[in-house]
Amino acid sequence: MTDLESVLNDRLAVAFAAVAGAPADPVVRRSQHADFQADGALPLARRLGRAPRDVAADALARADLADLVATAQISGPGFINLTLRDDALAGLLGVMSGDERLGVPTAAVPETVVIDYSAPNVAKELHAGHLRTTVIGDAAARILEWLGHDVRRANHIGDWGTPFGMLIEHLLDLGETEAMQELSVGDLNGFYQAARVKFDADPVFAERSRGRVVALQAGDDTTLRLWRLLVDESEKYFLAAYDKMGITLTADHFYGESYYNDMLDPVVDALDGLGLLRESDGAQCVFPRGFTGRDGEPMPIIVRKRDGGYGYGATDLAAIRHRTQDLKATWLLYVVGSPQQQHLEMVFQCAREAGWLAAPARAVHVGFGQVLGADGKKLASRAGDTVKLVELLDEAVIRAAAIVREKNPDLDAETRAEVARMVGIGAIKYVDLSSDRIKDYAFDWDRMLSFSGDTGAYLQYTYARINSIFRRGGVVPDRSAAVLLDQPAERALAMELLGFAAVVTDAAATLQFHRLTGYLQHLAGAYTAFYENCPVLKSEGAVLASRLLLCDLTARVIAQGLDLLGIETPERM
Ligand code: ARG
């Protein structure tokens, strides 16, 4: 265990419990006055009706800290300031260096986690709006998997419903070959819009489309075959975009809305059996407790529409039931934009009432704000259309290539292209993950691609620079070398490195990835200060070995941290 905060917390908890005669939280956190401080004496003193400084002194006297703590002081009203022993820090860094996982423990209770993310709609373009769910969901999948959870990626694509009537009829009008050609060049929006225009303008076409929906729902063979053509073509297109973007979603993770078709009838029956189904305006509805509209009336999830068809809500109910009952998942994440918050909360509440979402199982809406243009308005192309996601990715890589060429003209063309890809895609992911996800953020290319500041490129650059030290010196760091922390900058870097485990655990629990990016920035800052103050290749013997180990650990933590966010690290740039 290299997580200092937890180690100190555990040790002090024993002492606090002895003072309190019952469990009491020592409340340990990083401090500006010392390495750590424990503030738990204050609330405990209130509980016991004693003076806080006495309680702090009492706890300290009972605490077994000698091997870890150099000085412990009581300050102010009863804070305990703790400064760690250098040899303790060095020892923990040694453990961290020898550990593949860099001191990050796997989850104490591994769970089956379903992560519902990306979820584009068939025959529609992936646009900038899909960026966030895809990037955030993928980071969640990576981090939870690394912590040992059984992660099930669920790409809930919109592959069913009334639009398919007009899409299939349009496909027939064009002829299969022609239609497939149009779709395979990736002009999904054009196809969709053409169908839409005909549907609105031509009553005969509209009638055919409605008939086609009925045939589709009835499972007509020809109709299903044509539907499959559309779905397959879109899926190919989505996969190509994921590949370009370095997203871990594959063909195995498509669980589109149609996947739940056979589960819809049983879900309705089950809800009916539980007495949760009510008719309203000819539709079968559930009214989950606690949701009322502006008029004070309870709000429905429409399960079965008046025409007998099932809607988006029914599918989500079937999906949640499937996830907890069949997959036995206990942690359900829905990485979906904030506008769908109420819909999801209603689905969760309904599932609770139906007994499909009972402890320890829980569902979490991982919401997020919008992507804005540099002008602060919704991101749009020059013509005012929504921006295609692949165009955004391509632009990032092109811009990154220009910057990389300028920064390092010596890179050969192949390496430069590879670095540009990592930097461009990384910049897009980083900007998405580095702010509180609930907030909107603005796309600002120059800032995003800068090699300094709070950017992915800065972290990648720090990593590459460390590698260049090893290359220049022709040295391979010895991961079992003894760590020496004589210089303040070495000690400060050590403290940052030892914070990795806590921050990963925290980011996984809260799915607030900006805490991890913020940590990596601090680490890179501490490394820079170390590098400026402590010569590495010019030092010798044990000092050289120790400093190389610190460089190596920094590079490993940056690479691992970025990897958890889905961002690659070039060896040189
Ligand atoms: N396809 C939906 C959309 O584009 C998102 C689906 C989100 N997931 C879910 N289980 N409802 O809005």
TrEMBL record:
Looking at the record, the residues that make up the Arginyl tRNA synthetase N-terminal domain are 6-84
Fetch the InterPro entries from UniProt.
Answer: aa-tRNA-synth_I_CS (IPR001412), Arg-tRNA-ligase (IPR001278), Arg-tRNA-synth_N (IPR005148), Arg-tRNA-synth_N_sf (IPR036695), ArgRS_core (IPR035684), DALR_anticod-bd (IPR008909), Rossmann-like_a/b/a_fold (IPR014729), tRNAsynth_Ia_anticodon-bd (IPR009080)
Q: Which reaction does it catalyse?
A: tRNA(Arg) + L-arginine + ATP = L-arginyl-tRNA(Arg) + AMP + diphosphate
Q: Which UniProt keywords apply?
A: Aminoacyl-tRNA synthetase, ATP-binding, Cytoplasm, Ligase, Nucleotide-binding, Protein biosynthesis
Q: Does the keyword Protein biosynthesis apply?
A: yes
Primary localisation category: cytoplasm
Return the EC number.
6.1.1.19
Quick one: a GO biological-process term for this protein?
arginyl-tRNA aminoacylation
- Gene3D superfamilies hit by this protein: Arginyl tRNA synthetase N-terminal domain, HUPs, Isoleucyl-tRNA Synthetase, Domain 1
* Compartments where located: Cytoplasm
* Pfam families documented for this protein: Arg_tRNA_synt_N, DALR_1, tRNA-synt_1d
Question: Which is an annotated GO molecular function term of this record?
Answer: ATP binding
Q: Which domain of life is it from?
A: Bacteria
One GO CC term of this entry?
cytoplasm
Ranges for domain DALR anticodon binding: 459-573
Does this UniProt record's set of keywords contain Protein biosynthesis? yes
Query: Its quaternary structure?
Result: Monomer.
Q: Which HAMAP family match?
A: Arg_tRNA_synth
Q: Provide the family line.
A: Belongs to the class-I aminoacyl-tRNA synthetase family.
Please report the name of this protein according to its UniProt entry: Arginine--tRNA ligase
